[in-house]
C-alpha cells in the first residue's frame, strides 16, 4: 500500500510494506514533521487512528471491494471528510488552519 500525504502543492509518499504490522509511531511522526514543515499543526487530528482504519478498509477490499472501504467512509471519522475513489483508493481530508487542507490518500497494491 501507499500512503500519500498532501498539503497544498507539497506531498509526502510513504510505502506501507506490511499493512498488518505497521510502525504507526514512525508514520505519525513523519506526517507531523511534514505538516510542521508546511506551517500547520495536525496534533489535534486523530491521525494515529485513521491510518489503521484506512488500511483495514483497503485490505478488506481483497475480500469484496468496495464494501469495506465504502463502509469505512459511511461510518465516518471525526475531523475528516472521507471519500472512496474507484479502484480501492481512500481519501481523507481535514482542514488544518490558514485555509490549508491535509489530505491522506491510501492506494492499494492489488
Provide a short characterization of the protein structure.
The protein has 110 residues and is of the alpha+beta class. It has 3 helices and 5 strands.
Structure description:
This protein has 110 residues and is an alpha+beta fold. It is 33% helix and 31% strand. The protein has a five-stranded antiparallel β-sheet. α1 (24-37) packs across α2 and α2 runs antiparallel to α3.
Task: List the keywords.
single chain; 110 residues; alpha+beta; 3 helices
Strands, total number: 5
Question: In angstroms, what separates the terminal alpha carbons?
Answer: 9 Å
Shape descriptor reads: globular
Q: In terms of structural class, how would the helical and strand content be classed?
A: alpha+beta
Please give the radius of gyration in angstroms.
13 Å
Instruction: Give me the oligomer status.
Output: single chain
Fraction of helical residues: 25-40%
Identify the strand order in the major beta sheet: 2-1-5-4-3
The string of secondary-structure elements, in order, is: EEHHHEEE
In what range is the share of β-strand residues? 25-35%
| Total helical segments | 3
Outline the biggest β-sheet.
5 strands, antiparallel
Amino acid at each position: 500500500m501507499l500512503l500519500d500525504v498532501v498539503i497544498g502543492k507539497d506531498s509526502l509518499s510513504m510505502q506501507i510494506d506490511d499493512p498488518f504490522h505497521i510502525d504507526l509511531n514512525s508514520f505519525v511522526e513523519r506526517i507531523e514533521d511534514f505538516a510542521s514543515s508546511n506551517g500547520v499543526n495536525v496534533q489535534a487530528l486523530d491521525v494515529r487512528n485513521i491510518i489503521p482504519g484506512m488500511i483495514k478498509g483497503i485490505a478488506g477490499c481483497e475480500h469484496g471491494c468496495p464494501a469495506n472501504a465504502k463502509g469505512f467512509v459511511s461510518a465516518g471519522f471525526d475531523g475528516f471528510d472521507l471519500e472512496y475513489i474507484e479502484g480501492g483508493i481512500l481519501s481523507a481530508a481535514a482542514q488544518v488552519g490558514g485555509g490549508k487542507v491535509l489530505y491522506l490518500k491510501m492506494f492499494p497494491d492489488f
